[in-house]
Amino acid sequence: MKKLIKFLLWGLIFWVILFMTIDKVKAEDALIIHQNYGNTHSKHKNRLENANHNVTMNNAGSSSYSYTASNYEQVYDIRYNYNFSTADKDRFKTVLSNGGTVYLVGENGNFDARNDSIVTFLREVTGDNNIAHSGNSCCGSGSTYSMNENRDILTSYSNSNDITVVASGYFSNIGSNGKWLLKDPSDSNKIISAMWDGDALSATYSNGKVVVILDINYASHSQYYNNGDQAWIDAMITDVITSTVNTRSVTLSGITSSQQTEVNTAKNKSQTNNAIYLTQSGDGLDLDIVQDGDNNLITGPDLTNAGSISGTNNAITLTQTNDGNVLGIDVNGNTNDVDIIQNTNQNAIVDITGNSNTLDLEQLHLSNSGEHFSKVTVNGNSNSITIDQKETGNKILFLDVDGSNNVQVDQKGTGNHFLDINLTDSHTVDVTQDGTGSHNATIHLSGNSSSVTLTQDSSTDQNYHLQQSCSSSSCSATVTQN
C-alpha cells in the first residue's frame, strides 16, 4: 500500500512539473506597440491573453517613441503609418537574436514609406535583397475580400471563413526562403502576409521569426473582424508566433566588481610632480617620454614598483599631457614597438612579454574632458595590437592576449562602453564600438585559429557576450548590432 501511495505521489509530481513546464514555455511576454487605431491592439491583446501570454501595450503615436523590447519574446508593431527608426530596428533585432518573434503591420499603396521600412528591415535581417513590396493596393477598396491561407504552416486554422482584408498592400517578392501566409486567391503572385524564420534569416537571428501582414483593417473595425479573422489570429499564435526555443536567461556583458576595483585603484592613484619611476636594461632602446602638466605618473603595472623595460630592440614613445594620467608599463624582451598617448583623465596599465609585439594605444579626449581606462596584457609571439578609446564618455577596456594575435579595437563615440577580451592561440579580432549608445562586449576565445568581428554602433545601448572554445582548425564569429 505504501509503495502504491509513493507511486501515485511521484506520478502527481511528474504531471505537476510537466504542466508547469508547458505553461512556462507557452506563456511568453508580448509587447504591442500601437497608435490606437480601430481597437486592433485590444483584439490582439485579448487573443494573446486567451493563450496565456503576458501582454504589455504601449501607445507609441510617433516613430521616435522610446520603448524597451529586449525583455519580450513577442513584439507586435501595428503602427501601420509610421516608419521604423534606427532605434526601432535595433530593438527588433535584439528580440530576434534572443529567439523571439517580431510581428509587423503595413498597409496599402498609400503607405509606401511604412512598407518600405518593413522591406528594408527584412533585407537587413535576411540578407536577401530580392524581398520587395508593390506600391499598389490589392484586394478590394473599402469592402471585405476573402483570402486563402497557407494551411501547411497554419495547421490549427480550420475555420471555413478565410481572413478578410481591405485594400491591403502586397509583397511582389518574399525572397527565396520566405513563407507565404496569405495570398490573393485570384492572383497568387500577390502575397499579403508572410513569415521569415530559420534559414530565411541571417545566422544571428535564425532562432527568431518575423511575421508581416500588409493590412491593418483585418482586425481593426468590427465589420471586418469576423470569426475567420479571430481564428486566423489564434492559429498564428499557436502555430507561428510562439517561439520555438524556450525562454532563456541571456548572459549579459558587464564589468565585474573585481574589475571595477581595478579601475578605481588606477583612477585613485595619487601622484604629484609628474613622477616617473623607470628601470631600463639592455639593447637598442629608443625611448621618448613627454609628460606635460598636472598629475602625470609613469610607474609599473602594479602602480607601485618602477616601470621596468628590459630586453632587446624596443622603441617606446610615451606621451601624457594635461590633467591626471596614470600609465604603468612593463615591457620584457624581443622586438617591441610601443606607442602610448594619453590626454586628460586616462589610465593605462600595459604588460608585454616576449617576441615581436607592436602596441599602439591612444586614449584621447582632446578638447573634451572625460575618462578612459585600459588594461592590456600580452604574452609571447608576434602580436600586433591597436587600441583607440576617444571622445566623451567612460570607455573601459580589459584585454588579455596569449599567442600570435592581431587585434584592433576602436571604442569611440560619445556613449559609455565596456569591453573585456580574453584570447589565446592564433586569433584575429576586429572590434568597433561607436555611437551615442552605451555598449558592452565580453569576448572570451580559447584554442585554435579564430576570426571575430564585433561592431556595435548605434544610438541604442547594445550588449553582447561571447564565449568560444573551439577544437576545430578554425573558428569564426561575426556580430553586428547597429
Tell me what you see in this structure:
The chain is of the alpha/beta class and 482 residues long. It folds into 2 domains: 21-241, Class I glutamine amidotransferase (GATase) domain (Rossmann fold), CATH 3.40.50; 257-481, no CATH class. It is 18% helix and 37% strand. It has helices spanning 2-26, 40-50, 86-97, 112-126, 227-241, 257-267, and strands at 29-34, 54-59, 74-77, 101-105, 132-133, 145-146, 148-149, 164-165, 171-173, 179-184, 187-197, 209-213, 280-281, 286-292, 309-310, 315-321, 329-332, 336-343, 346-353, 357-364, 371-379, 384-390, 394-402, 406-411, 417-424, 427-434, 440-446, 449-457, 463-469, 474-481. The strands form 5 sheets. Strands 13-15-17-19-21-23-25-27-29 form a 9-stranded parallel sheet, covered by helices on one side. The relative contact order is 0.08. Residues 1-26 and 245-250 have low confidence and may be disordered.
